[in-house]
Amino acid sequence: MLPALVVLIVVLSVTTDGLLTSSNIVNVLSQSTVVAIAAIGATFVILTGGIDLSIGSVIGASGVAGAWLITSVHSVAAGIVFALLVGAGIGVAVGLLVAKLPVVPFAVTLAGLYVVSGGSTLLSHGRTIAPVPAGFINFSIDGPGGVPYAVWMTLGLYVIAQIALTRTAWGRRVLLLGAKEEVARINGVSIGRVKTSVYAVAGLFSGLAGVVLTSELAGAGASMGSPLLLNVVGGVVLGGTSLFGGRGSLLRTAIGVLFLGFLSNGMSLLGLASYDQQMVTGALILLAASADGLVRWVRPRTATA
Amino acid sequence: MRRYPVARCVAVAAMATLALAACGPTSESGSGVGSGKGHGTIGVSFDLLNAVRTSEKSAIERAAASAGYKVVFDVADQDAQKQASQIQDLIQTRRVDALIVIAQDGKQIASSISLAKARHVPFVTIDRAVADEQDVSFQITGDPHADGELAADEFIAAARTKPLKVLELVGALTDQNAIGRRDGFGNTLKGHADLTVVSQVPTDWDPSQALDGTSNALQKNPGINAIFVPSDFLLPSVQSALSTAKRLAPVGDTKHVFLVTIDGDQNGCKAIRGKTLDADIATRVDQFGTEAVQAITTTLAAEVVVPKTVRSAGVTLDQANFATVKARVWGCGD
Amino acid sequence: MKPATRVRDALLAGARQPLLLVLLVLLLALSVSYGDFASTANFRNIAVQASPLTIAAVGATYVIITAGIDLSVGSMLFLAAAIESSHALAGVPAGLVFLTVTAAGVGMGLVNGIAVTATRVPALVVTLATLQVFRGAGGHITGQQNITLAANLRGIGTAAALGVPAPVWLAAGAAVGGGLLFSRTVFGRYLQAVGSHRDAAVHAGLPVRRVTAGAYALAGLLTALASLTQTGRLGAVQPSIGQGYELTVVTAVVLGGTSLFGGRGSITGTVLGALVLTTAQTGLVFSGASPYVFDIVRGAVLLVAVLAAAMRWRDLARAVGPTVLRPARSRSSRRKPAKKW
């Protein structure tokens, strides 16, 4: 997927003005942080062969929870902790349901999406909770070298998550579970516990994404996360992490998320109509995801011919 | 996924080049970056694109063209984060000289407003009110409360001839415009004995819910003889429900259900002309465009930002004044 | 198991739907709680309101039975409506417009179907991508405007015959036709074979790809029909049409007991699922509850329904795997020789 990202950037930098200026690159990075953070959790879930459709609603719910505490007790730290707890708590609940019940993750997390988004809209009366302190907002604006703290934090999280995936026993279990569930079971891996853990991790990262989004937007609303689900899943899949589980990495996810970030930025710089942007994005996701499948499909025929 | 990076790469490159090449001409008009002042560029960011927004867009474009500005245009598809990103791109990468924004969320637009302030880019908001009114250069919005009152006045006038049992549709309960229209309408109706709101139907601004809700309400209260529709785009749903319930009749017919809407778009104007709608409270979309561009010119020239908020109440277009008022209603143009 | 036996089982599973009981209890409870709920006209309203969902959900049932998923339903609904109201078809006789739109629906379904069968990309990703493509295309055609529909195109949503509204006729037709296609035809048997034992189906020489693509094409056709019905009822096309509809459709299908693992499902169940969802929504309107409560209720009902279904079919050992996302395992075996070249 890296070559595709390079090609995209080259094409866009030729066709638009200002794509490769340092300020624009920082903008794309900071615009991608929320999706990138949520995509870490989604990558772990997808590596086990699962899917989490509740990510967008959890981002909204935890953002609202955090902003509510920040504005009511005036403690940013308490608000952040609460948001993360809400995210992780929902994640654990979803994970337990996925692990314990003989129901596909798709259905469990679809139900989770409805309950969480309906619940958070109801509890917040559909209102946006604002304002939050300037220091908290600065987290996603200022930072060393002109790059926001949020971006540095995201980079750090990717390094940690990649190490957790490849260098820890838990990471190996996640990969093994996704690749060959039976083998994992025979090797004594507690399937239920690993499954619960990945959804819990996804919830935690969604919670963090909710916090960063609240900082970015200077306030939180229950529906703010729902448009992000497409980009989160799209970024992971575009990066090349297999939806069948067992194959993928955080590096790939990072590339996929950046691809979508640059694409959206570039199309906006080009002045494409919003509906045309949708068409191009969808077509590129499909094309990028299917390119090698198409080649395999065509090759045997040409080879035998 | 790993096996044919070259193929994937070529395919994506081909696709991307095609897509971008196809859009070449648009990019020409959009790349007025850094052109001199006086003929600056206005960046426009809308929350979404629909019939009302299209009219607002062309009003801005007309006003900008006559004042000598270029316009670059973004739509956020109802995604607050996307809007923040697009405004950041407009300010920092496309270096627009001023912004006209319809906020997806009146509070969450705060970050964009402070970014613009820090970069000394005039920030004008239209249509939907924002929370930090003092930090924007200029704001012109409709006055949903007043529009609701104007609509109520039509009902009060109609109730002089016969008592009205009103069905009230409500927009999204999370939308301040919907709430303003509801409150303005409800407060004005209070104390009029010959007017009773027998049913309130939440629609979440969804035509299907408006249709189903109206059908259910007509079913529950067959005595309903007036409906308040808080936006023109829900009118087809309401008329469809009326027609299914065999209650659709032209203005003047004894079976006619009294209908008032807000917005004043093409369909609303056509419906009044066709005598299927009694009154439409038309928002001043043209005024949004001209005053927003005017404010930008003033702000850019004076360099002193004087925050100002204008609330512009709508104009009532009804069967009696159609001929004289239609020229001021945006939906009756072209 | 002989196909005939499996068909009978599927029918029995449909007849044994606990959902029928749920629907009856729901109707009874609402009738008792709200005096004006139990009237012919209100039941007629519910039936009309459930019709487009029923039609689209019957189509989605075929896709889900093949262990696939179609997230592009809402966008197809919008694109079909956009085509129906486009300038190019202005003044064209209604019949021809309907034909064009249904053909376009088949075309959209085929795009999904071919992309799913010709590539290794899971249906979830394919249809997530086409969700954007179709909605973007619809926006391109309409320019995001509200377009009032010509009067002759509205009849399909508002007319009535023999006292029964046209949408209900269409939904009934889709349900009965869809049910017969599923239980009485070779295609229906193949669908179940492909969904439950793809490898075996391939080895048995069944046209697995064509059957799968056919399921998506049928879903496209029925979605176009649902779109014609719904826009006919609404009398206008708006850019927000169909947003989030895919989740409602999947919920109706899953509620009806069709397994997301594929292979098992029932059209009767889907119809009941659509009716339960619509009745619940109408009931909430009657109760005056906040519209957001509906989301919570829908989520809870979905989870309980899926759970109930899974409990009954627990003997399926596969019930713990993420099979919904798995493509044809057979294809890898078929492709293996190719790698050597």
Automatic annotation (TrEMBL), chain A:
The record's keywords, sorted A to Z, are: Cell membrane, Membrane, Transmembrane, Transmembrane helix
User: What cellular component GO annotations does this protein have?
Assistant: plasma membrane
List membrane-spanning regions. Answer: 28-46, 76-99, 146-165, 198-222, 228-246, 253-273, 279-298
Q: What subcellular compartments does it reside in? A: Cell membrane
Instruction: Please report the record's description of how this protein sits within the membrane.
Output: Multi-pass membrane protein
GO MF annotations in UniProt: transmembrane transporter activity
Source domain of life is Bacteria
Tagged with keyword Heme = no
What Pfam families does the database record attribute to this sequence?
BPD_transp_2
Name of the protein in its database record: Monosaccharide ABC transporter membrane protein, CUT2 family
Source species, please?
A: Actinacidiphila yanglinensis
Automatic annotation (TrEMBL), chain B:
Signal peptide residues on this chain, from the entry's feature table:
1-21
Note the Pfam families from the entry.
Answer: Peripla_BP_4 (PF13407)
Q: Which GO terms describe its cellular component?
A: cell envelope
Sorted alphabetically, which Gene3D superfamilies does this protein's record hold?
A: 3.40.50.2300
Q: What is its main location?
A: other
Q: Please provide the record's keywords in A-Z order.
A: Signal
* Any one GO molecular function term: carbohydrate binding
- Origin: domain of life: Bacteria
Q: Does Signal appear among the keywords?
A: yes
The record ties this protein, via InterPro entries, to: Peripla_BP_I, SBP_2_dom
| Location(s), subcellular | Cell envelope
Tell me its family. Belongs to the bacterial solute-binding protein 2 family.
User: What is the protein's given name?
Assistant: Monosaccharide ABC transporter substrate-binding protein, CUT2 family
UniProtKB/TrEMBL annotation, chain C:
- GO molecular-function term, one example from the UniProt record: transmembrane transporter activity
Q: Where in the cell is it found?
A: Cell membrane
Q: Which residues cross the membrane?
A: 95-118, 159-182, 267-286, 292-310
Database matches in Pfam families: BPD_transp_2
Recorded GO cellular component terms are:
plasma membrane
Annotated membrane topology: Multi-pass membrane protein
Write out the entry's keywords from A to Z. Answer: Cell membrane, Membrane, Sugar transport, Transmembrane, Transmembrane helix, Transport
Please give the name of this protein.
Answer: Simple sugar transport system permease protein/ribose transport system permease protein
Q: Which organism is it from?
A: Actinacidiphila yanglinensis
